[in-house]
Amino acid sequence: MAQLTMVQAINQALDREMARDDRVVLIGEDVGRDGGVFRVTEGLQKRYGAERVIDTPLSESGIVGAAIGMAAYGLRPVAEIQFMGFIYAALDQIYSHASRLRTRSHGRFTCPLVIRTPYGAGIKAPEMHEESSEALLCHLPGIKVVVPSGPYSAKGLLLAAIRDPDPVIFLEPTRLYRMLREEVPEEEYTIPLGTARIVRPGTDVTVIAWGSMLERVLKTTTSHSVEVIDPQTLTPFDWETVLTSVGKTGRLVIVHEAAKSGGFGAEIAATVAEEAILRLRAPVLRVTAPDVVLPLPKLIDSYLPTTEQIRAAINNVMRY
Question: What residue numbers bound the domain in which 221 lies?
């Protein structure tokens, strides 16, 4: 079984699905001739032609708007937005059209659209290139939000996302693109959307993390037995796995690289308080970035949650 990076695993998933289903088309800035800004789509235009791997002008609203039309009329477009900070220009299309198409048409139309975008900090890129705004997208009914945390999950989740009948935002942790290698089967497989995975079983405390923060959690050393959960899909969220784990450990730490206020960790904490407060032995703690504008490269290491902060949170909940 090949050891692949996340870039290679996503490229393989796109290649397999385009070969299997001729309705799948790729659309975005530089996705064709250049293979994308991170070379995720490299070689696909040569293999499938410019009519299925479409280079576009620099217009995020135009890319997503065109992809919504393609999806409504029977194609399965995969649109690439070069960085998550650029997706804000397409929010009108996502919020006003993609999310509502099924409801607006009383089920006559669906929107089987995937929007791929690199997200998250740690590569020391310019402003607007390292955003982590997943909570903004999770707040909108009608949109699914998927975050792989490694090459294996990236392939399986992307195949499931492309085959889904509704719009999916697929957030790819930029810092992990070439950092990790995992065994990835060459054959196709899917990971159902809405299912979390227990990465490491434990009995003392539950830690939830997604994207590149999962890698940081797994690097954190502690003397306690920590159950680590990778949600994989933020919307829909696998509450059963999380509540079962919290019921067992009685403690919960949530780690994400977005700002704390209004982050998706707050939604997890609130739901756990509603559903399992009598099972908790300690307050739910969040380890997040501070509530500041994402800094420029020289300060990015001071912005992201550290293993020391994660270890301190685990130790704090264990004191109760």
Answer: 197-318
Residue 248 confidence (pLDDT): 97
CATH number at 227 reads 3.40.50.920
Catalytic residue among 129, 139, 224, 256: 129
pTM of the complete model: 0.95
- Please tell me whether residues 261 and 314 are part of one structural domain: yes
pLDDT at 82: 96
Q: Which residues of the chain have pLDDT under 70?
A: none
Residue 79 gets the label, from left (phi > 0), alpha (psi -120 to 50) or beta, of beta
Active site residue 224: no
| 111 assigned to some structural domain | yes
| Residue 286 near residue 263 (C-beta atoms within 8 A) | yes
Residue 24 to residues 74, 94, 140, 205, Cα–Cα distance (Å): 10, 19, 25, 42
Domain limit, last residue, from 152, 184, 216: 184
**pLDDT number for residue 125:** 83
